[in-house]
Amino acid sequence: MEESNEKERGEGAVAAAEDESSGRYLDLTSFQLHDLGEVEIPEGLVELDLTSNRLSSLDPRIGLLSGLRKLSLRQNLFQDDGIEPISTWDAISGLQELVLRDNRLTKIPDVGIFKSLLVFDVSFNEISSMNGVSKVSNTLKELYVSKNEVSKIEEIEHLHALQILELGSNRLRASDGELTNIDKFTRAVARTKPHQGCELVRVKMYQKIKPAE
C-alpha cells in the first residue's frame, strides 16, 4: 500500500510540474517521499523544492540540471554523507540558492563548487563548527546558521557581499577579541556596501551571543 501511495504522489508531482510555466519549477513539498524514483524530473528545471519529505540521499539526476538555480532540501533526513555528492556536481555549479535547513547535518557541507551562491541555509541542524564556511563563495548575501551547536564565529571574513547572517540559538560565547573582530568585519562590509543590509548583518551577528566569563 505504501509503495502504491508513493507512486500516486510521484504522479501527482509530475502533474504539478506540468502546471508550472514551461516545467521550470517543480514543487514536491510535503509529498513524504523516501526517494524520487517514481518522479519525473524535467531537464529544464530552474527551481526544485523538496521541502518536507523523507529523503536521506540525493537523486543523481539533480546533478544533471544545468539550469538549476534554487534547490531546497529543507526538512528532510539528510546526514553529512547524504549531502556530500553535491560538492562534485559541476553541472549545477550555477546554483544561487541552497537550503539544507532542518536536517541532520553535523558539519558545514562543501559548497565551494557554487561560485554564484547568494543564499545558503543550514539552520536547524546539529552543526558544531563553522569550519567550511571559508569555501563558500564570496558572492554570498545570506547565510543562515541559527539553531545549531556552533560555539565560535569564524571563516566569514571573505564574505564582503553578506547582508544577512543569522546565528541565533547557538552556543556562542564570544571573547572580547572575537567581538572586536566581528565589529571590524561589519565595518568593512559597511564601507563596501553602504546600505541598510549592513545594519542587518550587525544585528543578526550579535543575536544571543553571550560574552565569555
TrEMBL record:
Listed Basic and acidic residues bias regions: 1-11
Region Disordered, residue ranges: 1-21
Superkingdom to which the source organism belongs: Eukaryota
Example of a GO cellular component annotation carried by this entry: cytoplasm
InterPro entries per UniProt: Leu-rich_rpt (IPR001611), Leu-rich_rpt_typical-subtyp (IPR003591), LRR_dom_sf (IPR032675)
Keywords assigned: Leucine-rich repeat, Repeat
Protein name: Protein phosphatase 1 regulatory subunit pprA
Originating species: Iris pallida
